[in-house]
């Protein structure tokens, strides 16, 4: 399969490939189509669910993604890897969230549900312009769960101390992406490259936030957005413009990918 491509380019979504309205601008869509035409495999690498990236895939033609912070991978509509969380661990997290009066969302490969509705749940999903999950507190008992979203503004340390089996990525003021330890955007890249036999190709990564650091530190050529956190810029080979100011296009042009 490696002979199909000249390289692999990984893109974070929020704050990176998407604009401030959580959409693909026409210019970025054109750039990604040109990237593919030039022989490169574009890959979405995101904390979002597959349900939340359908429009992005349609606008860009991207058919390969690492989602849920490395916990679910897909290539050409076929699953490549799944990092399932044990039911008993989830039960413990549900009990702790209930004790702390927090909400918690469950992510399977094709659904999102929460244990209760509250202000943090509403604010978190509204901030990324996606539907608020329906309430199904027992959903995890009958489905394979790949990621949790902890809805809290203040209890980070309590979760980390009580459940060190997880890796936590705060993604905003209201919520924390939570995956089984060992899963990450970097691990998603490793799994994808190995399973698609792309090991001899150069890799590029675009990102801006805390959950992008493993990706930026792993790829051959790391690009941080101007709107990114300082640690992302420190990890980058090149700092491009912001996601609102042609940063994707400038970064691709810098490496002669388009």
From TrEMBL:
InterPro entries: Cof, HAD-like_sf, HAD-SF_hydro_IIB, HAD_sf. It comes from the Bacteria. The keyword Hydrolase applies. The keyword Hydrolase applies. Keywords: Hydrolase. Pfam families: Hydrolase_3 (PF08282). GO terms for molecular function: hydrolase activity. PANTHER family: PHOSPHATASE YKRA-RELATED, PHOSPHOSERINE PHOSPHATASE. This is Cof-type HAD-IIB family hydrolase. It comes from Lapidilactobacillus achengensis.
